[in-house]
Amino acid sequence: MVEAIIIKNGYVVDPEVSKIQKRDIGMLNGKFIDPTIIESYGADISYIDANGSYVAPGFIDIHTHVFKDYTTLGIEADKVGINQGVTTIIDAGSAGLDNYATFKQKVINTSKTEVLAFLNISTKGLCNEGGELANPNDLMASEEARSIFRTEPSLVGLKARMSGSVVGNNGLYPLLHARKLADDLHVPIMVHIGNPPPLIEEILPMLRKGDIVTHAFHGKPKNKIITPHQELTSEAINCLNRGVLFDVGHGAASFSFKTLSIYKEKYNYPFSISSDLHVRNYESPVGSLMQTMSKVRGLGYSLLEVVAAVTMEPAKTLHLTEQGTFASGTRADVTLFYETDVCMELKDSEGEPMIVEKVIEPYLTIREGKKVYESNVGTKSQRN
Ligand SMILES: [Zn+2]
């Protein structure tokens, strides 16, 4: 039997047409299709009444750590994936060449959430805790990289954590190496910025179009994208003009309301929102991707902008053609959510509180045209 779903009465948030409007969304055999022609396929149609809620392309979280049981940070993928309205999760360098087969077997193949990955340029990934780039002998070789990227479609790019506690005495060397690998493979690098060395002034000029700077809006005393005059550094502006994507990567220590507010006040470059969720920040301060979106929303970004930051923007940068879109014929991943009126205090990684008046709450997740998660969280809520 041909399986079809039509979502009716919802407010469809579609960043690709920059609109929120009431319309139906159709799905047939796991793909999006114009709902007005579904009947002509003789399909058995089930209907979802999304009255009072929002309907968006499935959310993508491009920075998480889900290599559970093999890294101390790893959290269960579905817990922060489909159960929180996230249909695609990208693990940011938990696995490296040596343990990717295990990651694939234990996480990718067993999760209902789509799991993709940035491969750590350290062959060990985060399986020996941190400091993975302190020994140059652990860097993945070009031939090794070529071979694994040829055979693993779940790999979207490389991960290089460029901060003092990770690179030890190697300074920029691991990033030079990552640059060489990325140019050879034609894949992006996700670079984590944090405490120096190396300096952000040295890191940013090495990034090209399509690369991603995660933890971009951190509030640490050094290595910020914002100058003491509350403007973007010239290196940051040049980077953004070249098409590098800045990413939130909330985490326990890497998202400052103040930094993002300054950015918002003066600049209009698109960015992505990710959580950096793992077991040590899940309870606090991160919670979920949607809670991170609620914080960004609390700083004054529109609903359309925060949804674009977890759908269209990351999909475009990573050349994901099946995700982050409602385009006809692409994979039908959908996130249904409420925006609930509240008066709630949420904190950034600096412990800075903000009172938010709305929170985004998932209640139904669809993957490949099938319901994979439904909660009762939103049933009492109403869109206002
Ligand atoms: Zn991380």
UniProtKB/TrEMBL annotation:
The answer, when asked if Metal-binding is one of the entry's keywords, is yes
Residues at site: Transition state stabilizer?
R161
* Amidohydrolase domain sequence ranges: 48-92
Q: Has keyword Metal-binding?
A: yes
**Which key words tag this protein in UniProt?**
Metal-binding, Zinc
Indicate what this protein is called per its UniProt record. Answer: Dihydroorotase
Residues holding Zn(2+) 2: K159, H192, H215
Q: Which SUPFAM superfamilies match?
A: Composite domain of metallo-dependent hydrolases, Metallo-dependent hydrolases
Native species: Peribacillus simplex
Residue ranges that the Swiss-Prot or TrEMBL entry lists as coiled coil? none
Q: GO molecular function, one example? A: hydrolase activity, acting on carbon-nitrogen (but not peptide) bonds
Residue numbers binding Zn(2+) 1: H63, H65, K159, D276
